[in-house]
From TrEMBL:
The protein's name: Uracil-DNA glycosylase
Source organism of this protein record: Sphingomonas quercus
Stated role: Excises uracil residues from the DNA which can arise as a result of misincorporation of dUMP residues by DNA polymerase or due to deamination of cytosine.
Gene that produces this protein: ung
Cross-referenced InterPro entries: UDG_fam1, Ura-DNA_Glyclase_AS, Uracil-DNA_glycosylase-like
Catalytic activity: Hydrolyzes single-stranded DNA or mismatched double-stranded DNA and polynucleotides, releasing free uracil
Lineage of origin: Bacteria, Pseudomonadati, Pseudomonadota, Alphaproteobacteria, Sphingomonadales
Molecular function terms from GO: uracil DNA N-glycosylase activity
Length: 237
């Protein structure tokens, strides 16, 4: 993946990952998939979009997803986010509902979350690519090891960060985070996944957005402006 550009704040500490055998195998897999005519989402120049928009030294909140959306035109490199002209997915609808109950912010009419990413919210999927119409089709190919390394880098920072972990997959992936409740630095907030199947079992009412902002403000930082712009503008790329 040497041809893929990456923000220098991430590229240097992740260089060992890019030079590793597992990453070479992942690259060969993706090249073979494309040569076989399979459509892969998101586009190659958006695989590391979350890292480009939220450099390591600017990360203040981490939200973990599992897999990119696998429908045409949806995924653009940020977990839970879709392009401005795409219908808001059900899990994001529930995220908006909780945000309105927590902060009084009316739901946005779009699902484009770059406004969050540019403020230091790392919107990271565990797996960064997927084949069209085949959920989880690129799991177990190496992306998980790479994104584990990303989380380890955030965890190693001296500055406290908020981890918003929705669902068992995210909670297991970030189980090693040095959390406040274990005497560490970082605030780890846990809740069920916001999907329609589980949101009513504890995601609603979790108040993660206000709790994250209260923690940031306690450190003397600006809170995240969770209110999305009415006109998000076009997606890059």
């Amino acid at each position: 993946m040497a041809e893929v550009k990456l923000h220098p704040g991430w590229l240097e500490p992740l260089r060992a990952e890019f030079d590793s055998p597992y990453m070479a195998a992942l690259r060969a897999f993706l090249v073979a998939e494309k040569q076989a005519g399979k459509r892969i989402f998101p586009r190659a120049n958006e695989w590391f979009r979350a890292l480009d928009l939220t450099p390591l030294d600017q990360v203040r909140v981490v939200i973990l997803g599992q897999d990119p959306y696998h429908g045409p035109g949806q995924a653009h490199g940020l977990c839970f986010s879709v392009r401005p002209d795409v219908r808001v997915p059900p899990s994001l609808v529930n995220i908006y509902k909780e945000m309105e109950a927590d902060l009084g912010i009316p739901p946005a009419r779009h699902g484009f979350l770059e406004h969050w990413a540019r403020q230091g919210v790392l919107l990271l999927n565990a797996v960064l690519t997927v084949q069209m119409s085949m959920a989880a089709s690129h799991q177990g190919r190496g992306w998980e090891k790479f994104t584990d390394a990303v989380i380890r880098l955030v965890n190693a920072r001296a500055e406290p960060v908020v981890f918003m972990l929705w669902g068992s997959h995210a909670q297991k992936k970030a189980a090693f985070v040095d959390s406040v409740e274990r005497g560490g630095r970082h605030l780890v907030l846990k809740a069920p996944h916001p999907s329609p199947l589980s949101a009513h079992t504890g995601f609603f009412g979790s108040r993660h957005f206000s709790r994250a902002n209260a923690f940031l403000e306690s450190l003397g930082q600006k809170p995240i402006d969770w209110r999305l712009p009415a006109d998000p503008g076009p997606a890059a790329g």
